[in-house]
Amino acid sequence: MYIHPLQDPGVTPNSNGLPGLSAIRQMVGALQTMTLVVCVGVVVVGAAAWALGSLNSSPHYAGKGKIACLIAAGAAILIASSNKIVAFFSNIPIA
């Protein structure tokens, strides 16, 4: 039994295939900005909870605040670098 090798269908991503692609890019950019602002807010609230929990000898609140800060910082790193991550793994130059 002979198995045929996989063939390249010849489909490549392009930026002129859909109308409104620039509007979608602008919306995604605005969404990135909004989520980064939310991450900053979560870091501030988490840091306040961490500080108040530490001052009031409440390890539960201090731990939750610490975790909120770490998760928000990690999310901000992923959100801010998402364009470069996708470009790296897709090998597509994104303008």
UniProtKB/TrEMBL annotation:
The chain crosses the membrane at residues 34-55, 67-89. InterPro entries: DUF6112. Pfam families: DUF6112. This is DUF6112 family protein. It comes from Kribbella koreensis. Keywords: Membrane, Transmembrane, Transmembrane helix.
